[in-house]
Amino acid sequence: MDFLIQLFDKTIIGMIYSYFYHNMHNNMSEIKIICLAGATGSGKSALAAKLGHELDGVVINADSRQFYADFPIITAQPGPDETALCPHLLYGCLPATQKMSAGQYAQKASACIDEVLRQGKIPIVTGGTGLYFRALMHGIADIPPVPREVRQKWQEQCRELGSHALYDSLRNLDPDYAAKIHPNDRQRITRAMEVAEATGKNLTWWHQSQSGKRDLRYLYLGLGATLKELEPVLRRRIDVMLDNGALEEAKAALRHCADPKAPGWSGIGCAELFRALAGELTIGEAKDLWYKNTRAYAKRQLTWFRGEPDLRWIEKDNYNGILRMIKNLTITQG
RNA sequence: GCCGGGGUAGCUCAGUUGGUAGAGCAGUGGACUGAAAAUCCACGUGUGGGCAGUUCAAUCCUGUCCCCCGGCA
């Protein structure tokens, strides 16, 4: 009996030891890139720029909206204060008519990371788009682009027949994926249908054959902030953005692209100001809606990041602690 | 003061030939594999303005009082 207990103990100790051993070797030492996530308004941009300055790093965008060139103010892209501190990549480089995607992002960001590492600097990937972080760090299925006609066809089908009808078809084509999503989820249902038609393989097949996973040694940090803390910040930020010319920015963007359905216009703040400019809402109503949507978005982000197993929460007030942790874990020679 | 409309969930409102009520939005939690600032899911006890009356039973009918909106004075 004693023998068995001893054996059991040894096994447990062995498991614990190997867990830490692997963690130390795979995640903790030789960290080469820093990922800084957090809800909108939590102060990522300022912190990232400061860290970039301190550590000789380069900030790389991980925010789907901050790609859009027409909306630097409304999407809270890093301003002169930040860009003066260190180089910033992948900000403000997309026209409102063009779409970004998680796969495209992973490729672009990956290329940027390689370049930054080649320069012997530290990539600091910063943003609020959880899916982009995941695509970058864990890879994403290597699905070829779906032709526009195919995509449009399924969107129309969904509109005409309803999502439930398409869901029934999907259950035949891809029962496993259908089981994971809801019959009301038009976006995921149409996506599954278009991929199946365009590639001849269903999404489950693609997800299982996932490639593009890189062996990135990353430190995944989440800037902690509760919704309660964020609320006043987000409320105030809207006024600050308007003072800084958000409305003029939207007007100017309208000259480049007047289609409210264009990818660039779907951002929070952009959509509300578009409706205000169209006379559909007063500025006051637009502001209220803008705030509501921003708050709801921050809440969704918190839900996402809370569920990320390898994310470590950090406190914004503890700058020196953050710096010390990063320096301990980072080998800078690239 | 008179006439009319109204007071129902945090907000906007629906409904009940009288059998104690439900949508949207908001809120909370959650999901998330190429639109992700997107898309979607789950969660609904509220002195039905107060009081009194009719009734087996009132949020609904009657009376009365209070409050809001519009019109007339």
Structure description:
The model is unreliable at 1-29 (pLDDT under 50). The protein is 57% helix and 8% strand. It has helices at 2-28, 44-55, 80-83, 102-118, 130-138, 148-161, 163-173, 175-180, 186-199, 203-208, 227-243, 246-256, 270-277, 283-306, 319-329; strands at 33-38, 57-61, 88-89, 122-126, 218-223, 312-314. Strand 2, helix 3 and strand 3 (88-89) form a beta-alpha-beta unit. The protein starts with a helix and ends in a 5-residue tail after the last helix. The chain has 15 helices and 6 strands. By secondary structure, the chain is an alpha/beta fold. The structure holds one RNA strand of 73 nucleotides.
Give the secondary structure arrangement, pairings included.
Layout: H1 2-28, E1 33-38, H2 44-55, E2 57-61, H3 80-83, E3 88-89, H4 102-118, E4 122-126, H5 130-138, H6 148-161, H7 163-173, H8 175-180, H9 186-199, H10 203-208, E5 218-223, H11 227-243, H12 246-256, H13 270-277, H14 283-306, E6 312-314, H15 319-329
Parallel strand pairs: 1-4, 1-5, 2-3, 2-4, 5-6
Helix pairs in contact: 4-5, 6-7, 6-9, 7-9, 11-14, 12-13, 13-14
The structure holds one RNA strand of 73 nucleotides.
